């Protein structure tokens, strides 16, 4: 694997980044969700321009290929999206993406609503659960927090 570069995703690459998000979501997270949860994710994230315009997205690139993305909202205090292509998971790419968020966030605390699939990833990054698993509009998640 060549050197992975982490960079901010500008609007020109947003479609490519969202394709990775959607494909990875369908493969790893959708199996744990009801039809309502899958539709909620698609409508409230992937197809929601207001949502997409309110997040700051970073990508892990190898040449022209996007391997993963992380996005925050609320001035970097909440992780809104965090996906690494399945072919590249467990190679430190997620950790590099998270490091970019830490470097660019001005808050002392970062929150996330982790999917059941990603909870162990967040634990390894230093997040702690703040409440038991919850469900909103068919989306299952565990509220978590990271303190710098």
What does this structure look like?
The protein is of the alpha+beta class. The protein has a single domain, classed as Gcn5-related N-acetyltransferase (GNAT) (Aminopeptidase, 3-Layer(aba) Sandwich). Helix content is 37%, strand content 32%. It contains five helices and eight strands, in the order E-H-H-H-E-E-E-H-E-H-E-E-E. Strands 1, 2, 3, 4, 5, 6, 7 and 8 form an eight-stranded mixed β-sheet that branches. The longest helix has 19 residues. The protein starts with a strand and ends with a strand. 27% of the residues are buried. The model has no long low-confidence stretch (mean pLDDT 91).
Beta percentage is: 25-35%
| Corresponding CATH architecture | 3-Layer(aba) Sandwich
Poorly predicted regions are none
Through-space gap between termini? 30 Å
CATH homologous superfamily descriptor: Gcn5-related N-acetyltransferase (GNAT)
SSE order in H/E notation? EHHHEEEHEHEEE
Count, helices: 5
Q: Whole-number radius of gyration?
A: 14 Å
> How many β-strand stretches?
8
Shape estimate = globular
Q: Determine and state the CATH class.
A: Alpha Beta
Helix content: 25-40%
What is the domain total for the residues? 1
Structural class from helices and strands? Answer: alpha+beta
**Average of per-residue pLDDT values:** 91
CATH topology group: Aminopeptidase
Biggest sheet character: 8 strands, mixed
